[in-house]
Please model this.
Amino acid sequence: MEDKYEKISRLAKRRGFFWQSYEIYGGIGGFISLGPLGVGLKNNIIEKWREVFVKPYRETIVEIETPIITPSKVFEASGHIEHFTDYIVECVKCGRKFRADHLLEEKGLTGLEGLREEELNRLIAEKGVKCPECGGTLGPVSKFNLLFKTTIGPYSEQVGYARPETAQGMFLNFHRIYEVMGRKLPLGIAQIGRVMRNEISPRQGPIRLREFTIMEIELFFDPLNPSCTYLEEVAGERISILRYGNREPIKIKVVEALEEGFIANEWNAFFMALAKKFLNYLGIPDDKQMFVEKGPQEKAHYSSQTFDQVVLTERWGWVEVSGHAYRTDYDLKKHMEYSGRDLRAYRFKGEGEVRKVLQVKPIVKNIIRDFGKDKLPAILSNLNSLDGRKVVEALSKGGLELNIEGIGSIKLNNEHLIVVEREEKDYVERFLPHVAEPSFGIERLLYVVLEYSYRERKGRIILSLPKELAPIKVAVFPLVKEEGLCRIAKEIYGKLKKEGLTVILEEEGSIGKRYAKADEIGIPFAITVDRQSLEDSTVTVRDRDSWRQVRVNIGELPKFINRLLREGALQALEQPSRYPP
Amino acid sequence: MEDKYEKISRLAKRRGFFWQSYEIYGGIGGFISLGPLGVGLKNNIIEKWREVFVKPYRETIVEIETPIITPSKVFEASGHIEHFTDYIVECVKCGRKFRADHLLEEKGLTGLEGLREEELNRLIAEKGVKCPECGGTLGPVSKFNLLFKTTIGPYSEQVGYARPETAQGMFLNFHRIYEVMGRKLPLGIAQIGRVMRNEISPRQGPIRLREFTIMEIELFFDPLNPSCTYLEEVAGERISILRYGNREPIKIKVVEALEEGFIANEWNAFFMALAKKFLNYLGIPDDKQMFVEKGPQEKAHYSSQTFDQVVLTERWGWVEVSGHAYRTDYDLKKHMEYSGRDLRAYRFKGEGEVRKVLQVKPIVKNIIRDFGKDKLPAILSNLNSLDGRKVVEALSKGGLELNIEGIGSIKLNNEHLIVVEREEKDYVERFLPHVAEPSFGIERLLYVVLEYSYRERKGRIILSLPKELAPIKVAVFPLVKEEGLCRIAKEIYGKLKKEGLTVILEEEGSIGKRYAKADEIGIPFAITVDRQSLEDSTVTVRDRDSWRQVRVNIGELPKFINRLLREGALQALEQPSRYPP
Model:
């Protein structure tokens, strides 16, 4: 018997939701392509996410877009070069490579996340794990970095990587956005975009991909004022939490979870409540989703607390669809350290405070002497944001190296810069904001949406997609392919398209087959033009889920359909079916 | 004096449209980041493109999404490994690398596109070109491939590249989409997505990027029936064409350009007319855009005719914003050859025709014997689409190699397959469709939109963005920060946001400064709440472009603003200004 995953995969391929990429070349694991319906569904999921997470909070949360290809320095700073790895074993006989933890899981072991090299080697030896392909002996475990590596420009030493998350784009640009938005905190920076992770041997279709799309927010807040402006909106929301070390989840209001200390901060709690509601809109009921707290070994290197939002699936059990991390000031601190730029935010104090400031002053005439007049502006503007202490340190060690776009690397010494200390009365304190991050993978959401809307009825497939998400809202069918009926159908098609609805028109095939296809691809309503339409200008409107039909005046169609889409339910359709469903 | 590019770059950075990426690490050429306004503007450009190119033609043109990372085989087939190159020279003294044609252009030479190695070497010697950085001697010219290279999975021999165009995604998936869409031609497959090109030393901000976003359509048509279904819609459109070898463009109706043979096929002509209209919507008038035909040496390797749509800019002169290529059946033919799969479409004939068919038949018991029962289904389903002639050829040479996902590479021989010839009466002819391609670069469009909407008036900047494109539609300002006024302003803000409009609310600063900021970021309308609002529930609405103001009843605001946004012009605002503009 096929399971739901197989059924959905077949449907998705046949109807154009998604399929494995590079089919004509035999396919490559970890890549999928989206067809017309897949793109429609994906875009509707993205739009819904914006409606839930961004649009209502526009004064606080804004969207940016940053590049996928990233210079190595960024991931050295963020810790991904060191930590974004899996353990791999190679068969000494056939040379095939496998994820060490996956092989042990196949032997029935669990809780392997976070185990180290020696522990994995020990378990492989103990359990007598062999190569699953050829039965050969496995070599020792080694680390494999999951970043896709490349070279930027014509110099082989300029290493770059494809980003594995969009988040670093928000950290790198935090200070600019903070300035653009008027130096206000809290500040949320959102991004939707492709990311890449070079998985070792992915085999779970849309669940484990080497390239996928992420929607995430980095919410920057003042750790001395960590309250979430919008918490009240979700105060009544109950979520299921499985705390680390517990066996059973508890159902609890987010505000209570905060009081109990189960969730580390208000912003993470707020986003978890929104995430629960968001999944409800996507068709996942409360009892099929929960938040699982990760243990100390299982968390990403940057996180002080992490919850995975998981959804129950038929084949894979609980599958993560979003991650909720409290990233503290980890990333900003690291980038400040590696870049030497001051990335701190400002906190205004009522009373001024005398403090000592190190000010970096250029010796302009020597800079011109050594680097030329035309390079002066770029050098000066690069000095602005330097940390005085770092400059003193660098100068004392022989010179300050600056990497300036359009100029390249230059070295400044005591002849070019002096650092003076002065006292100033300061009404401003500088500090590194803390960060709460909700992060969603779209392709997994797309899959669970399909799994939760998949129904079978009398041997036919119905995709009961939430109406908002359905890529096509209405189908228009002439009952038979006759000129008069086709003409009316075309008029209705044109009119509904003008209303901004996504509509299809199909003239060929039996009406039963066309209804069946419309059900399979999740079209909520089908309009049928029949001979009676020629007499009284009415058509039938058929509901995907109940198969009920009702006659409606053609002139009222746009209003009628829009109301049905908005209100969801189809109470009006009380008449018995006229044509085979 | 600053030119427009510098002015726009400064504005874009200060206000959050775009800026160079990785600033805190000194910046890297060829990458930009988009801030909140940049993302808003980009998404509105994309939406407008869909409205012009996709939505009205949904029965013919559908959107897909395919991966960025692509196995090398695809670009071997497409010719990108061989042809997607620039010529590079290295300074023997300092080791810096440059594009050979750019160095020659700096010496005043033009028309260098398509020159070969020996010609470039000769010109460099003749003109005595030296290293522009250190004056050193330049080595010989060599080819540099612009594809970003990486490795897929843990095996170093599995080379992959980031795609330099989305087009290959459409070719690889043509046959699947063709099946999904009911085997109808013409069929357009559109894609919007990131692409990467490893430029050697890009220095033109958003104009020459290493990573950017493309919107393109591959329109597949039957070469025996090349007529464009929608040509009549654009019959009256006049476009400017600069034919190859001519000095002056001609202004001509697209249908006449087709009759004269200036444009090779109806679909390319149709898309060129749409492209002209699309740029009009973006604020580029007819006399600042044209289509330049590329010469035989300048065209891409896959194209039989190419027009670049160019827009006049202040700094760079005519800049390409879209390309219109007639790709013929080049790509499908290549992929058919390299993959061994039959990618042809079907043409139905009235009369049947007897033809000989080679049918590949599996010998199931031997396949089970050699590969096991569980691999049988995957092997059988891979046999379906094989070309009989290729199989015969492979078997005669000792065996047929198949690369099957989940199994890997296997070799079948005469014990596993037989190929039989039989005659059948065939009502179907198979053929490779031809392809017309319009392809737009979004970041360049974003830049020219800003350049064409940039105005200065009384020392202030006004960004007269087309209203449809403006990222923020309305600003709401209490005249002064008083509780009563702020309360009303908040109500208006909330109400307009609920209408689906993008709105900002600003309470701080003088009203003049707030108007100035609203003008700079292109907000079409500003609503001001003043003391009179407390008495008679009216507010002023101010027009960005004319600085005129009119009083409007608060209750009528949503309707009033929506009408203004739809109709564009602001005739209603006849009253003189009340506050400083």
